[in-house]
């Protein structure tokens, strides 16, 4: 019974390498890539959501941008803006998202350092201080 299935596979040993080659042919190769997506939406849509009046929407946008990280250059600017949000939970999530970046902008580092000293929320100050250390800044 199993012998028949093994026999079929044995007759088509070259199929898998061909499928793999066809799959990889479209990967990389210097071809232009589409927009970076997070949660099924373009990064630009999440950046726009940072201006939504609902803080829950802004928090979700911050978290999605944090997941994108350095893959899109607009993420750092969006997170910099979110670090100044009026809602403390948005600011805290923005700190966590910013700490994920491998190459944060100098402005982002400076904002985090300032937050570690002056944010009105003690937890946000603490988190910002830890983010500054994680990103290799002074603080």
Description:
There is one protein chain. By secondary structure, this protein is mainly alpha-helical. It has a domain of 97 residues: Leucine-rich Repeat Variant (Alpha Horseshoe). The protein has eight helices and two strands. Strands 1-2 form a two-stranded antiparallel sheet. The radius of gyration is 22 Å and the shape is globular. The protein starts with a helix and ends in a 5-residue tail after the last helix.
Keywords for this entry:
139 residues, mainly alpha, two-stranded antiparallel sheet
Short description:
The protein has a domain at 38-134: Leucine-rich Repeat Variant (Alpha Horseshoe). It is built from eight helices and two strands.
Shape: globular
- CATH topology (level 3) name of the domain at 38-134: Leucine-rich Repeat Variant
Low-pLDDT windows of residues: 14-27
CATH homologous superfamily of the domain at 38-134 - what is it? Leucine-rich Repeat Variant
Return the structural class.
mainly alpha
Secondary-structure element order, N to C: HHEEHHHHHH
Biggest β-sheet description: 2 strands, antiparallel
Total count of helical runs of at least 4 residues: 8
